Amino acid sequence: MSEPAQELWPLSLEAYLAWEAKSPLRHELVGGFPRAMAGASRRHNLLVAALVAALFPLARARGCRVHAETFKLKVGPDTLYYPDLMVVYTPPGENPYYEEDACLVVEVLSPSTESQDRWEKMRAYLGLPGLQAYLLLNPEQKGLEGYFREEEGFAYRRYAEGRVLLPCLEGPLDLEDLYQALA
């Protein structure tokens, strides 16, 4: 399917959703403009799968939903992203094609999207009222870095090993276990 006619840009949310539903490629919507999604490496995909396996039991115990890679998160009136993983605690919204308020968002870094994940998406995600943590994982180097909500805003933390207590899920993420998926 071709790109929408340039004279129709920026796209409204409704126009984007209709167009994206028919497109064979996934596109994020950034400020009303569609941006094609890059493919993922094997290591990236394995790390996302390991995250889902690790977080799903915690999410289920708390009554949360877990979405990975193919479900959209609305972060503004004309911006939707496909996070690598998100956890949502609030009841589902009316639109069945996106969530609106994740409590945890995780992006797995790749060379083609790292700057977007670290700057553009980070600013958008930290603006979500219910977000408790935004985490970044590197499939090439064990560890986790992230922004964790505190009373005055968000605090940046970095972990090279061990267990990381995840807010929203109120449970640990074991980095050793997580990165075993890449061994």
UniProtKB/TrEMBL annotation:
One Pfam family of this chain: Uma2
Domain Putative restriction endonuclease positions: 13-165
Domain of life, per lineage: Bacteria
Family matches, as CDD domains: DUF820-like (cd06260)
PANTHER family cross-referenced by the UniProt entry: GLR1098 PROTEIN, RESTRICTION ENDONUCLEASE DOMAIN-CONTAINING PROTEIN-RELATED
Protein's UniProt name: Putative restriction endonuclease domain-containing protein
Organism: Thermus filiformis
